[in-house]
Amino acid sequence: QVQTVESGGGLVHPGGSLRLSCTPSGFIFSNYWMYWVRQAPGKGLEWISWINLDGSETKYRESVKGRFTISRDNTKNTLYLQMNLLKPEDTAVYYCNAQRWGLEYWGQGTQVTVSS
After folding, report:
1. Which end of the chain has fewer CB atoms surrounding its CB within 10 Å, N or C?
2. Distance of CA 73 to CAs 2, 40, 53, 100, 105, Å?
3. pLDDT tens digit sequence for 46-55
4. Which pLDDT score, from 0 to 100, does residue 109 have?
5. What's the CA angle centered on 77, arms 74 and 83, to 5 degrees?
6. What pLDDT shows up at residue 42?
7. What CA–CA distances, in Å, run from 50 to 10, 30, 38, 77, 96?
């Protein structure tokens, strides 16, 4: 099955950090633009960050700028999201999304819960 596989979620206190990872299943990672998207309880999907093919360009949602860092290692076929200074409003299921040439792949997501 062609999809992404996310990992690294968990429970963290406010102000804490987590690093999410995403690997491809069934497609060539380096050929795809990659996104992190999240869905908070009872809300719709929310785009967080984007990275281009070689990792030289990135974009972020305003609410996570300065706290989250997206990166990719094409030699390891892995996408990362380093999340620092986490807030309760960051609580969500985080998805890794791959896009190119009209194709789009998703994974099952990883739960991030920020709570004291």
Report:
1. N
2. 20, 27, 10, 18, 18
3. 999 999 999 9
4. 97
5. 90
6. 95
7. 22, 14, 13, 16, 10
